[in-house]
Design a protein that fits this description.
mainly alpha, 13 helices, 0% strand, globular
Length: 295
């Protein structure tokens, strides 16, 4: 009942504010095409191609699988970590428990996004982009080492999943096909949540006396990360705490990215509890580590 009320409430908001909804969707589409697609698509195709290429020899040792998941997932951008882990789970390289824990650890924005978009275009300084990337991966590595400790303690308690392989048309063609579905998922969530965030921000600012810059940044950050960092840049660029706001927004991720991970993980029936814990950890750790790097 509550879900129906919320859905109808949002439908009415979109009906009464079509121009605002259009502007938000247009901004989301622009950010996806210019800030996400060029950095995300090539890496997703190559990662999928690598994962779908049959490997010769024995199944790799656990720590090699963990390292492979972290390198491919954490450096590919959202939601490549979820795609990588679920694909390795389907390939029987990881157990269900391992996949759930690594889903949380192998989750980070891609270096091309942080250095190319955030560092160069938003910060106007490549070095600042590298510092932010370092803070993100230091926090992730700490969580990853904790994950390895938990996995080592439970090693041998669960067999890796055995699934029937579907007929393949070739690793590259399969990679392109699966990558296209991920890209469509990313585009849909980015555009929808950007539009929704814009409508809610406009409604809140007209109903309550709030600073439009602060309200817009908070709401967009909760819904769509890329729109949130763009809004923070528009309103807080001259502030000394601006880099740490960006670090916090990227750590929060936003509902758009969480929805992408949810859809991908639930398709493989993986638990999201470790993922939620890792998000709480990152929100606290990444801005703090970035502050220590700056000082």
């Amino acid at each position: 009942m509550i879900n129906i009320i919320i859905i109808w409430g949002l439908i009415l908001l979109f009906i009464f504010q079509p121009g605002t909804a259009h502007d938000g969707a247009e901004a989301g589409a622009y950010l996806f095409v210019n800030a996400l697609l060029p950095y995300l698509l090539p890496y997703i195709i190559l990662t999928q191609w690598l994962l779908k290429t049959p490997s010769a020899g024995k199944r790799p040792k656990s720590w090699k699988s963990y390292l492979k998941a972290y390198v491919l997932g954490s450096f590919g951008g959202f939601p490549v970590g979820a795609v990588t882990v679920t694909e390795m789970y389907k390939n029987r390289e990881l157990s269900k428990k391992e996949s759930s824990l690594l889903l949380a650890a192998c989750h980070a924005p891609g270096p091309m996004f942080i250095i190319g978009f955030v560092g160069t275009e938003l910060f106007g300084n490549v070095q600042s982009g590298w510092k932010l990337l370092a803070a993100i991966h230091i926090a992730n590595l700490i969580f990853f080492l904790l994950t390895l400790f938990l996995l080592r303690a439970e090693e041998g308690q669960e067999e890796r999943v055995i699934q029937t392989k579907t007929k393949s048309s070739g690793p590259l063609l399969d990679a392109i096909k699966d990558s296209s579905s991920v890209i469509i998922l990313v585009a849909t969530t980015v555009i929808f949540f950007s539009s929704l965030g814009n409508v809610i921000t406009t409604t809140a600012s007209s109903a309550f006396t709030v600073d439009i810059g602060i309200a817009k940044t908070i709401v967009l950050s909760l819904f769509e990360m890329t729109s949130g960092v763009q809004s923070a840049t528009d309103h807080f660029y001259s502030m000394s705490f601006y880099p740490f706001i960006i670090a916090a927004i990227i750590s929060v991720n936003g509902l758009s990215i969480h929805m992408q991970v949810y859809v991908i993980a639930k398709a493989a029936n993986l638990s999201l509890k470790p993922y939620l814990l890792s998000r709480l950890w990152s929100v606290i750790a990444v801005p703090l580590i970035l502050f220590l790097i700056y000082t």
